[in-house]
Amino acid sequence: MGCSSCSSGKDGQPKGCKNNGTCGTDGCNKLTVFDWLANMTLPSGVAPFQIVEVRFKNGRKAFFNNQENLTLSIGDVVATEASPGHDVGVVTLTGELVRVQMKKKKVSVDSEEVKKIYRKASQKDIDIWQTARDREDSMKVRAREIAIRLKLQMKISDIEFQGDGSKATFYYTAEDRVDFRQLIKEFAHEFSTRIEMRQVGFRQEAARLGGIGSCGRELCCSTWLTDFRSVNTSAARYQQLSLNPQKLAGQCGKLKCCLNYELDSYIDALKSFPKTEVKLRTEKGTAVCQKIDIFKGHLWYAYEGEWMNWHKISTEDANEIIELNKKDQKVQSLEDYALELLDDTKNDFGNVVGQDSLTRFDQPKRTKKKRKSRNTKRKPREGSTASNKKETTTANSNQRAKRKPSRKKGPKPDQKRNSQSNKNEKS
Q: How high is the pLDDT of residue 150?
């Protein structure tokens, strides 16, 4: 859902808040929570919860105490306590759901992190806030140039101004410890404001900046994911994925968080599988596991020395053979168990209505049939009557009559003279 600042302007050109894919005004529902208790009234004698949740730039949220008992709703711009001065943010959650969020994030009501709300932001506060936000892009470019000139191994990813414009927080990522004392001096001299440096991880950087993942959707960390669980390569091994760092890494350069989504289901399914290191002993030879199929519950084994011939058996049969091997008993061969799975190759789906064809809605092309010539003589069938012969002869005579009559050629004058002389001699 796009906010009003993301709409198109003159000549169809998109306006946008120029925040590089993320929403700077909290209108695109980034990390927002739906208040499903908003229409419910509190029981009698119960006071409303005074703490509200306020969102700042790029999904940064904090809890503030509404000591002045202001009438606040989701989307109101408020001026909150900061050190020093005040900050400007947008209310994202009120009521009893804030209590649930504080319990989830393990923040107590009497904590020092919970500061107070001064007032609803006036138009002057909003103008100062927007003016400070417009300086962030140009400052980020200049700050990177200074860091490169000082040869510091760090990356300045984002800058966030305080609501009153008195302080700027620089977010950076670095693999090692960075001595940025000289950098802060140059920043203070260049930008004429108070500077605060804050180091974040690579996952937090991707969450702040946002982007599009390999699945084609927005990053989970920048839309709904708030807790970052550790991701190991064992998650890829459990799911039978190739250990390719280019495919398993996300925008942040670390392993994708979505590798943990289905990990529990794979672990539960693998409990019924025997260990792949266990070998099966048969009278034909010792078999080694080559491949498993978690979804169908099948395993492929190959005899030692015959690595090209794989035999597919089920998990129940493999566990049965292992139990017999523990009792020093051997089965005849794996072929006896593999024959039972040969009939499972039938297709369960049949194309009844033509759903597989991509051209089922296309009209078939009409084939032009060659016309037979009318002058072809048909051979008379056996047992044909005389009436059929008469019909054929009359038809042939009619066709000849329709033809153009040919001009008759008379005899030559020499031939006429010879014929007259022959007649006179006879007489």
A: 92
Residue 204: half-sphere exposure toward Cβ, Cα within 13 Å? 11
Element (H, E) at 325: helix 315-326
- Cα separation, 152 vs 212, in Å, equals 29
143: three-class secondary structure by DSSP:
helix
- Predicted TM-score of the model (pTM): 0.65
Region for 210 from its dihedrals, namely left if φ exceeds 0, alpha if ψ lies in -120 to 50, beta otherwise: left
How far apart CA 320 and CA 313 sit, in angstroms, is: 11
Distance CA 162, CA 60 (A): 13
pLDDT tens-digit series, residues 64-119: 999 888 988 888 999 999 988 899 999 988 988 899 889 988 899 888 889 999 99
Distance from the first to the final alpha carbon of the chain: 125
Q: What angle in degrees, to the nearest 10, is found between the helix axes of 136-149 and 123-134?
A: 40
pLDDT bin (cut points 50, 70, 90) of residue 160 is very high
In whole angstroms, what is the distance from residue 74 CA to residue 76 CA?
Answer: 6
Least reliable range by pLDDT among 26-35, 208-217, 257-266:
26-35
Pairwise CA distance, residues 206 & 159, whole Å: 14
CB 35 within 8 A of CB 97: yes
Amino acid occupying residue 277 = E
Helix (H, G, I), strand (E, B) or coil at 418: helix
- The closest of 241, 337, 342 to 287, measured between CA atoms, is 337
Burial of 180 per CB tally in 10 Å (0-12, 13-18, 19+)? buried
Please work out, in degrees rounded to the nearest 5, the angle formed at the alpha carbon of residue 56 by the alpha carbons of 90 and 225: 105
Q: At what angle do helices 181-191 and 136-149 cross, to 10 degrees?
A: 140
**Rounded Cα distance, 35 and 64, in Å:** 17
Residues making up the chain, counted from first to last: 427
- Cβ–Cβ under 8 Å, residues 161 and 131: no
Closest CA to 144 of 160, 158, 156, 159: 156
What was the pLDDT predicted at 427?
45
